[in-house]
Write a structure and sequence with these properties.
The complex is a heterodimer of chains A (581) and B (109). Chain A is an alpha+beta fold and 581 residues long. Chain A contains 21 helices and 14 strands. With 109 residues, chain B is an all-alpha fold. Helix content of chain B is 82%, strand content 0%. Classes of the chains: A alpha+beta (581), B mainly alpha (109).
Chain lengths: 581, 109
Amino acid sequence: MSETIQSGSSSGTATIERDQPVSNLGNTVGHTATLKEPAIDSTADLVHKLIKRDEAEGKLTMFPPILPKNNLPLRESVNPAADEGSSKVDVPQAPGIENSTNNTVSRVGVPSPKKSGFFDFLKRSSLGLSQPGLISNAASDVTPTPPKMDLSAKAEVLRKLTATELTRQENTEHIIPAFADGTLASDEPVVGSTINEKKENATIAATPMPNGENATVPIEEKALQKVTKRSLTESIATAQSKELVLRLFDDYKKNEMLRKGNATFQVPKLDSIPSGSRAGGVKESARVGGLRRLFSRGGRSLLASLVITAGLGQLKPESSSVAPSAISATLHSQDTPVFHDGLGNNLNFPPRSAVTAQAETSVVTIPVGTEHPGNTVNIVNSLQPSQPDSLPLPVIATTPDSPSQSVTQATQSASSETVTDPTELNHKHTVRGEKNNRRGGRMSHYVKRILHRNSPAIEQTPQSPFEQFINGPLNIPAGGSFEGTVQELVASIPEAKNFEGETNDSKADLIAHVVNVLAQAHNPRNADLANIQPGTLPKNIAEYVGEKNVLLLHEVIETTNRTTYATNVLPKIIHIMQGRG
Amino acid sequence: MDQPIKTSLISESLITDFIEMMEQKGVGRETIQEMLLQVVDEVEKEVIDELMEAMSDDQKALLDALVSQEASGEEIAKQLDINQDELEELEVRKFEEVMKEFSKLIRST
């Protein structure tokens, strides 16, 4: 058995193994301390080494830097068996371990002395994968959470890197990776070529064809259309540097302009693309996609479900508008289902037996007759209403893709997007279920909400310009710019336009708006928002945050491409908007 | 190992408090929900990033194979011997941490 105790210095964690004598461990006699890892460099040294290493390899240093495994900061944990105290002991140097001259181990309960910020963060991080059991062989393979560097320090490093990288890339061209058929190899931004801006015979460099030959392939407009904003967005999601993101976006805009003209793809040889410039690529993105499935067990992730159900569960009946054409239905396992179209008209529905059978699986989709094409009945399945501990399970069913789609098909399709396991839901959300029951039942609200979302009539419900702006996608017209589009939208919003000195509600709206816009801008997957540059913030936003904070705001934008906005950016933005920087 | 988290209770409390607070500030529910879902998405992404960092090369190779076979989340978890419950709890913890800070800041505006 081994136990780990807190290190007394930055030189590492010591592991105490039972039943091996160490004379000076006080009442922990019977333990041997062994340094498991060598000492690590200071933060500055390590960052410097990483930068030098990457420069030598001709690639960007990713920030936060991913440490080589042999320099991993050591995990620390508490040894529950050790006595509290303040004594320090010298630990015998482990065989084969160098740099272990400072092998002082402080006992549990003694605060560690100074730790440099870089690793201090890691050691203080309580949310990393140091939890045992997350991965079976985590003990040997776990790499700690990438450090979240101090923003200002990070910005400084990034500035230096940017200057270096810009110099290096002066003569380096960049491509939108795409295959010759026009399909964007979306996840693999590659430095190596660029769009040829010749008007009549533009070329777009592409990733190698399987045969690895250079070729100029005629491309039809239809194929070129496949180079979509969505694909570009995915490409940018894996880009390593801001410059790369901006180049991708620039290329995308050029590509947009090329759509109406003739274009060819020039296919470079595989070996013409420097391997070091790849940024994870398709494989990495596919892995992420695969791992995302871990969070959804047959439907949405637990958290997403919580967000939706918690939000919908609070819907006030009077606030839920249902269009006349919307269809709602309620099905209780012991009741006869009744469907109506919101106007008091009963609708046809499948035989009771079919509904019941599917109700037991908690997902039921019943296509309405042809007089209501596209509408879908969403059924609430209050399973076992007589049992107080069971959670009435909301059932979500989506509109069939086509009128010809069968009930089964629609159901199966819907089931992949729905929390479907009543047992699991009961197990995990009993409290919530009871809470919602006390509210008088969220089921009807749930149905209305889904209907609200599905109903074309609802979609036509007038929204304020502000609501349209913040709820709808930000569609940048071909050839348009992000800032121009945003400015137009902001100008169309009375609340925002007249924000100065306006009411708190307007202020709150604008805050939400700014957060929303900037949050999108900070999501590297939002390609069309990635070109925010200093001086191009929408005027109202700039005015609101104040001139003194604009640069800081931009710094946040520029330095958080690889930072989770939710943990770092949004609070920062709010601080900025509060004028506290 | 820490005690199991009362996932639904804590998270829902945070979510509902946040929704109520934002509504009081005049923000539409759909907007609030979108913001929350974005937070969820980013938290999930962060956990995935950590997971990727923690995976060995062999595990990554196995993951690649599973992805190419369009394996389900359950199958991926099984093959990689990943405890989905713990992963979920990690996600929830992160989410709660974010939401607490976020709510605190929003409340002060």
